[in-house]
Structures
1.
Amino acid sequence: MQIGDHSKKKKQLPHIGLRIIKSAVAVFMCYIVDFLRAGNGIVFYSQLSALWCMQDYTYETRKNARQRTVGTMIGAIYGLVVLVIFTGLHLEGTVLFAAKAVIVALSIIPIIYTTVVLDKRNASYFSCVVFLSIVVNHANDVNPYIFVLNRVLDTMIGIAIGVSLNTFRFRRKKNTDTLFISGLDDTLFNENNNMSPYSRVELNRMIDEGLNFTISTLRTPASLIEPLSDIRLKLPVIAMDGAALYNIAEKRFEKVYTISRDAADNVAEFLESMGVSFFTNIVVDDTVLIYYRDSENEIYNRIVSELRKSPYRNYINRPVPKNEDVVYYMTIDKKEKILDLKDSLYNAGFDSRLRITITDSSRYTGCAYLKIYNHNASKQNMTDYLLKTVNISTVTTFGTIPGKYTYLIEPGDSNAVVKLIKHDFER
């Protein structure tokens, strides 16, 4: 059995985002302010400060603004002190040059140390840049103190423009009465198994502003933690095709549909009698344990060798303890064998007590997964449970299967979900 070949898709150029446009506007506004100041300052420093404040999120913008302000003030103060020292030096030629070099170099030590004492270590670079721009480039000006004043003022102007532009929002009524649920693969994620920068930034911003959003997926929590690590989800995700409700932030299961022990024993005995190699997924203390046994099934063994390397998966090669509740069983094989196995399970009457699903494998050509769940384990049931938990009655869903979701998402546009959410959330 071979890993399926994936045809190379034409790389799409990213969109020009709002942050890029705001950066250009900020640079232009600095020119306007410089014109109004009749050229008394240096617009270059204002523009650098404005661009530094152009961050993805508002809290990052304010953080960078504070960092730049502190750095500028420290650098300007030390610059003034050194300028005073320079004016008192009655030296000439090489001796004067050497003295200035030593003073400037030694001054870097207290500058950086000051940022450490004030617990503003991230501002040390800017403090040094401001200091050096004053004492190296402008120490010989007719009135270097005017430059120091303008240097500080230029920075404050740039910070004011950058922060104002990047935090400005038109006031809109937010739709906080709807639960938005999106699929993951080919829906919110692109072909590289991650979100586009646009979707990540906009989704986080809307969640911060009260958006009720979560994910519904076939995936296990282990395969969600890393790709969703930079998404500030506040609601639990519907995982394992509706068998579990998992809180990523707190790393705990809020609800799990398990198979009754009698039914689980019967399924395991039946699969063993059929010579089927299968995985048994259970949850113990908010940890997923995956039991397996030695097998001659090549794909089965490959899954074990590849996935057990993950720090979020726990594979155990031994029989399942009798007192543990099973969340679901899973096996993989050639599709024709999987279809035959499904027929055998149906003929044995398991379909009346359990939910049996078949999913084509995108990774292994010609293969399919068969999973066996509690009959109540479904995305719809878990969605209904989540709606009651958050006390919301309206739900908007996004997916790739026609007729099953509020919005049908065509594969290829990973920004479509966030754009639609933005339209419905920010009325």
2.
Amino acid sequence: MANIKSAKKRVLTAERNRIKNVAFKTSIKTAVKKVLELAKGSDKDGLNSALSNAYKLCDKAVSKGILHKNTAARKKSRLTKAVNKLQTK
């Protein structure tokens, strides 16, 4: 641990932010799993709202600096491709 008081504060702040970021990324993963589960069924309205929510979470993560914009775009693209593939079956 650092000796300087401000450095000690930064260590604590960084840990707090890391925990928040991990929680937010976990919520994105949960939203993606929910979309994929709904894509297997026949509930179109639920699927559209869940897909919209997953997109919203990805975009919010970009604006908060949790995800890079290309990472979010890749996640959204892969999710859309997976949903389309599941719906055609």
3.
Amino acid sequence: MAYEEAQKALIKSHSLSMENREKLSLGGVEDVSGFDENLIVLTTSQGDLTIRGEQLHIDRIDLEAGQLEVRGHIQELSYGEPLRSGSLWSRLFG
């Protein structure tokens, strides 16, 4: 494994900063599953994140850097647990 790949595997940070429920800056974003003006669904390094609100707009997105900025009236942030790897038996009796 190359040095850069090893470093990326170790870094699993996720950050979130919100200003006045109108501007949201995120780090550690891996994918955007879907979005409209009321809902944005993201995959982050710490699990799935759902953002609910009104007049939501993605101002900036850079998936290589894992950065995302959202503007609008933010009403709810909801995390889903990240999927654990391994077989069903190892997850149940692990």
4.
Amino acid sequence: MSTNNTSEPKTETKPTTPAQVSAKIIPAALLLPFILVTALFSLWGFANDITNPMVAAFKNILLINNFESSLVQAAFYGGYCFMAFPAALFLRRFNYKTSILVGLGLYATGCLLFIPAGYAMQFGVFLFAYFVMTCGLSFLETTANPYILSLGPPETATQRLNFAQAFNPMGSLTGMFIARELILAKLNRATEAERIALGKTDPAALAQIQQADLDVIVGPYMVLGFVVAAAFVLFLFMKLPGSEKDKSVSLRIGETFKRLSQNGAYIQGVVAQAFYVGVQIMCWTFIIQYAENTYGMSKTAAQSWNIAAMITFVSSRFVCTYLLKFVSPGGLLAALATGGGVLICGAMFLPKTVGIDITLFDTGLAVAGTSGVYFLPFGLLCIAAVSACMSLMFPTIYGIALRGLDNEDAKLGSAGLIFAIGGGFFFPPLQGLIMDQKDFHLGILDSTRVSFVLCLVCFAVILAYGLRTHLVHHAKK
């Protein structure tokens, strides 16, 4: 696909020089709506990353296995899949503002459903709450991403989306801190084995501990529900420039699907996005189980590594956004996919005793050795460093896949890319299933390490997509 065809639809605009284009990444007249909609990126980032550690938390609280606990992610990302295309059709029929309001309403409702879920002490009710919540997130992402792309010249759309997406991990970091300090750190310290034993001797005492732990989980989600409800009120009374004119009387869904299905770069982008989301969720969800099973860390200490990974992700996002000025998106995507694969190999194959001895107090990042010495575990360091390689991928794949689509096709095309978030629905339960094979060993690899082979598969698919995009880019340049 040609890289310069995105400028063709706006023939009425005056010709601009490259310097003028770069100065109009975010036009001044559209700065306020850009800021407000970009804030939504932080809201769904918060939801994503307060939820990832809950897989390990529910496993211990409710005494379920890795596969069952990973159904949290299946329900969470299942909402994205289920609502992606309905959200896009709704957007085509109505407008950006209305779609954002529906998304915020479902988001707040899902969060508040945690209150009856905690009271019922039923895992299935929690899963339903996650599903409703992410039906709202699907509306928000299906709407916010193309709206950000439309807020300025098409030539700078990918840079604009990368910049907006850079604020998503800021919400993620907040969610991670809340998960560590207000949830994981406050859960009862009883191990899974101790809980099982207590359930046999005193079921009422176990139920009391479980109820207290579930109450700890419910609190932050309840507060989040009220915050999202406040955001709903804010958007209800604000105006979004360019929203009303996007109403569509004739949807022509069949014609749009036909055009999209014949667009090879778009279809490949949807596939690559599914594998990207899969590897992201696996790394950020199961880093806790990796730390527990490989290094004997507590959940709270393991979450510190998750936070370190997100800080790496945030920093790298800004760096990679800058590098896009000099390197083709596909080329950088391929290079980062290669780096991610190498780091996953390190997490899988490096002996767990390999590390740098450090005589510091245990900050949650070090592992206790002998004689009061702590060492830095290279395996965990590799998983955390993978986030630097992943930081560019979602918005870049998104921008490449939608390049050249007109405004109406981009709305439905956006839904396909949000539907691809379903990679988070499929891959985590599969990895959890592999982890549950306790008797499986392959040399130095236990089932936890072997499960990360799924991450290698994902990076291989992203590498192939990046190389193809890079080669086509240069072939048509």
